[in-house]
Design brief:
Order of helices and strands: HHEEHEEEEH
Radius of gyration: 15 Å
Strand content: 25-35%
Helix content: 25-40%
Structural class: alpha+beta
Number of strands: 6
Strand order of the largest sheet: 2-1-6-5-4-3
Distance between the termini: 29 Å
Largest sheet: 6 strands, mixed
Shape: globular
């Protein structure tokens, strides 16, 4: 894969994560295409920048959201103007010093290039609970903890 494409997709994802970590709803919404879709940890589906903004803004205003700690696992091109990114994510809740395994997640981002700008067409944050397989929860948590060192 072309290094430039990989870097551009990584930068787009990092802008999204940075906006979440700064509790910047507008900054998050701006990363999406006009009809981009966000599917949240709780299954909420919101479509389009305006709806994403109106969904995320009260979350930041009303809840002490934890920042994401993320690790990109792969970035694959889907032609020259689209790509898919897979990452794992953990969170350290406010007032804590360690990752909370119950909120580990798989993150999937589909990026499209529109007018020479990369935008998010889909971002999905899926719980990584691995029902009945606690060793996989621990394995993911340990992989994310390595980022803290």
């Amino acid at each position: 894969m072309n290094n430039s494409l990989q870097e551009e997709i990584q930068e787009l994802y990092q802008k999204l994560i940075d906006a979440w970590n700064k509790r910047d709803a507008k900054g998050m919404a701006e990363q999406f295409s006009e009809q981009g879709v966000q599917i949240g940890f709780d299954g909420s589906k919101v479509v389009g920048r305006a709806e994403i903004l109106s969904h995320v803004k009260p979350i930041f205003e009303d809840h002490p959201t934890a920042p994401f700690l993320t690790k990109i696992k792969s970035i694959k091109p889907l032609g020259k103007d689209a790509a898919i990114l897979h990452a794992i994510a953990g969170m350290i809740p406010p007032g804590k010093t360690d990752i909370e395994p119950d909120v580990n997640a798989h993150q999937t981002l589909v990026a499209v290039k529109i007018n020479d700008n990369w935008q998010i067409e889909l971002f999905q944050n899926t719980p990584a609970r691995f029902h009945g397989r606690p060793e996989l929860v621990e394995q993911m948590t340990e992989e994310l903890r390595e980022l803290l060192e």
